[in-house]
Specification:
Elements: E1 5-7, H1 9-15, H2 19-25, H3 30-38, H4 48-58, H5 62-65, E2 66-68, E3 74-75, H6 80-85, E4 88-89, E5 93-97, H7 104-117, E6 121-125, H8 134-139, E7 143-145, H9 148-158, E8 164-169, H10 171-174, H11 177-184, E9 193-198, E10 216-219, H12 222-226, E11 239-240, H13 250-276, H14 283-299, H15 307-310, H16 319-330, H17 339-342
Parallel strand pairs: 5-9, 5-10, 6-7, 6-8, 8-9
Antiparallel strand pairs: 1-2, 3-4, 10-11
Helix pairs in contact: 1-4, 13-14, 13-16
Length: 353
């Protein structure tokens, strides 16, 4: 798609240090080149001669100058709850907000495992102190360093070849090092860096914006943890900028909105059922409640990194398998099933007779 094209600005600036002067000398309007670099003018609307001239200045082909992948596009993780409700933004920053022992480090380790299988370089910016559970993240990280300089050098060496997932503790936000990293990498390499931030002290849950601006927020839910439903991602408060505007296709956005609406109503009804009993609900609310129970159970998922503990094989579901299953649950295809038949499984079709 034309809208998915963007200029390889880091490559261009690296090869043409004084871009404004060089563009003027080549007969190009500096303002046009500047607007192309900042995205104010989409690549698809640029004149071919302009793009050819820029490629000539950089000494590269048009295929090298023009790359695919918009800033706001999702990375498919194969984790149902995340891909459906709060997609990971490619090149963005995701913050995990949880209290201690809610599974955030397990989720981070699983994310590192899955992304490495997808060809990402997985990098851990290690915290200074030893933390229970961090060894799982270290085990699933391809690279692990402690200092800003080491992280910068590594990313510069890798970034032309691979997308990078960088995991770091909140301390690098509080110290300003994460922003120093982004500044130092603005001119380095073509591929995006996706950053996952955790709070190993568990203090982020009490703050309004513990990481600053985020592209994706995964908020962990105490109620789900108490009922051993993992990943314990709050389906209402977890969100992503990939859900804004037209960044998701119509099918994903429609099913995501329907699922969130059902889960929101289910959570309201659950407190009523707990205090008054199911018989106090109307027939339509009983149906909503029971479908919410099934959808919540379906979104629980076994992880690869947890196989030694759960004794269940990890499950990967493509986004469109997840969307199809969720649609069927919303439309009543699983109404005759017990929630336990959906819990901690893979595809719906594996258990629907």
């Amino acid at each position: 798609m034309v809208d998915d094209l963007q200029l390889n600005v880091p490559l261009l600036r690296r090869r043409v240090p004084n871009l404004t002067t060089a563009a003027r000398a080549a007969g190009l309007r500096p303002a046009t080149v500047s607007n192309l670099c900042t995205g104010k003018i989409p690549v698809g609307r640029a004149e071919v001669r302009t793009l050819v001239a820029l490629a000539s200045l950089a000494g590269c082909s048009l295929d090298e100058l023009i790359i695919r992948g918009s800033v706001v596009s999702m990375i498919e993780t194969g984790i149902k709850a995340l891909d459906l409700l709060a997609p990971l933004v490619r090149g963005g920053m995701v913050g995990l907000v949880a209290r201690p022992n809610m599974g955030q480090l397990v989720l981070l380790a699983e994310l590192m495992y899955r992304m490495q299988k997808r060809g990402f370089a997985t990098v851990l910016w290690r915290p200074e102190q030893d933390v229970p559970g961090m060894n799982h993240v270290i085990d699933q990280s391809e690279y692990s360093y402690k200092t800003l300089a080491e992280i910068v050098d590594l990313i510069v060496s890798l970034r032309d070849e691979k997308d990078i997932l960088l995991a770091a503790d909140r301390t690098v936000v509080l110290s300003g090092e994460i922003f120093a990293l982004r500044e130092r990498l603005k001119e380095a390499g073509a591929r995006p860096i996706t950053i996952a931030l955790v709070d190993i002290k568990g203090e982020a849950a009490d703050e309004e914006a513990p990481y600053g601006p985020l592209d994706t927020l995964w908020q962990f839910d105490t109620d789900l943890v108490s009922r051993s439903i993992y990943p314990a991602i709050n389906p209402i408060s977890s969100t992503s900028t990939a859900l804004e505007g037209a960044h998701l296709d119509a099918l994903h956005l429609t099913i995501q909105q329907r699922a969130r609406k059902l889960l929101r109503r289910y959570r309201e009804l659950r407190s009523l059922v707990t205090s008054r009993g199911l018989e106090k609900l109307s027939e339509s609310d009983v149906q909503l409640y029971e479908r919410g129970v099934r959808l919540e159970a379906y979104l629980a998922q076994p992880f690869f990194v947890a196989e030694p503990y759960t004794k269940k094989p990890g499950e990967w579901l493509s986004l469109y398998d997840t969307l199809d299953d969720v649609r069927r649950i919303l439309e009543g295809a699983a109404d005759g099933m017990e929630p336990a038949e959906l819990f901690f499984r893979g595809r719906l079709e594996l258990v629907v007779q």
